[in-house]
Amino acid sequence: MSTAPRMQTSPKQVFLGVHDGHNASVALVANGKLEFAMQEERLSRIKNQGDAPSRTLRMALERAGSADTVEVALNGRYMNYRQWDRKTVMRDYEQSASWRSRLKQPLKNTFVDRAYQNHKAEARRDALMQAGLDAGSMTEVEHHTAHAAAAYYTAPWRKNAGSFPEQTLVLTCDGSGDRVAATVSIGEGSKLTRIAEVSEHDSIGRLYSLVTRHLGMVPLEHEYKVMGLAPYASSARASQDIARQFEDMFEFTQPMAWSRKAGVPSMYSAYGYLAKGLQGQRFDYVAAGSQAFVESILTQWVRRAIRETGIHRIACGGGVFMNVKANLALLELDEVEDMYVFPSCGDESNSIGAACWQAARAGQVVAPLQGLYFGDPITDGEAQNALETAARSGAKLRFSWRTDIERTTAEALASGQIVARAKGPAEFGARALGNRSILAPAGRADVVRVINEAIKSRDFWMPFAPSVLAERGSRYYTKAKNVASPYMMYAFRGKAEQAGKFVAALHPYDFTTRAQEVTASHNPAYHRLLEQYEDLTGEGIVLNTSFNLHGEPIVDRANDAIDVLLRSGLERLALGNWWVEKVA
Prior knowledge:
Helices cover 36% and strands 21% of the residues.
């Protein structure tokens, strides 16, 4: 008697990426596809939560399910635990002016440093084992290799999963990681080959963070505020003088790498040196000068790398590329034919990069990135339970289920109201992409003050950004290159004749805008909301800012959304398919 042949199923090989430093995260790549990514702060509700991301690891392992193999890829060769919180970061930056810090710098990359790194690597493995991982499955991925892998393997240029473009120039730049601050690599096929690197002692990312601290803000968190402040400088000449002061600290000693000039201390012991040079300078001049310097050195670097390699397509990763104004300067270079910046490319994305690197080494073809919505979705049942619990606890809320919550939200926006939205799976990263957002009509300048003062306790000078129907973007701003912008990683120049239609989502001094272009394929519900708003108003663009209070993580679950609603000046919330209003 014959029997039917047994169905053969391909083994499921899972790569679990772990970043366990500042703003810890976990990612999961299964059979070449990024299936999960989440920051620990979203679950712990502690901003920039670091160390072993135990909560997110549990989520990721549940997603992995019955995988045949689970390999763990760690971001970096070692990790310093308990050095991620705000007070510790600020103290460490101030102490970089101390004599201890100056004496420590020459020891880096010596046998003493290697012993230190080995000790930290062992302590890290112990912590991750306590969080539920198997030590035998862990592989360290060098920090900038992870940044480069995230940018290269997820880039959108492949027509199908197996076809890579001829060559890609891959650039990474950040404060530091594994004693390196910037790299140049060539991506070809499934391979990444590094051809240049910059030492952490010469880090322009670290310099920008030192400026952030000098201006009274928090390094590794508030650099975007320096960028937002820069256009307000009242004297171009004074700002240029400061930019030249920074430029005089560095020189290109190799075709594709810069270093400090003689007499300039390591950026890891330069706080006093920098503060002395900036003493008495106005805050806006300092912000503008540091921004101009970063744009200048990055454009020089990219031009040099293109000239040396002949490759005009660039993919970028690392925290410095969170600077959308610098990305605009790169995008406008004649030498750059096409550009991709990995979304939320600070260290939180290195869990993704480490997993992609290990998957590629195992022979998997990593698929181009298709959206960043990886959290567990908020169901209507979860929303209802959270609302009823809040009401029983005394919260004065009125709520009702709507058959078309997108239309309800669009109507409220069209009438000039501000609405928070928490629906579907949460987006990964630093920027809200519609599913955990506060929305407002972009053509109403008065909403800026309301959101800043009554809702988010936000710095008055910071601009807001828009969400726009991708098919309408060219109506509102111009692009030097035809790059897609689904993740808010570029600034574009607003069209003067259209400025009044999205004045609340433009920088008020230089009229640039950090647009999120929304497509039906990435987020059909949010795309429909924008279509409904356009149907009512004629404009396919709204103000979009992250759904959180200043200094707190973006909301994740329904309880988080209700908590922020009750503690802020928000009046309306679209929670799943529930319409929620405060009752006076």
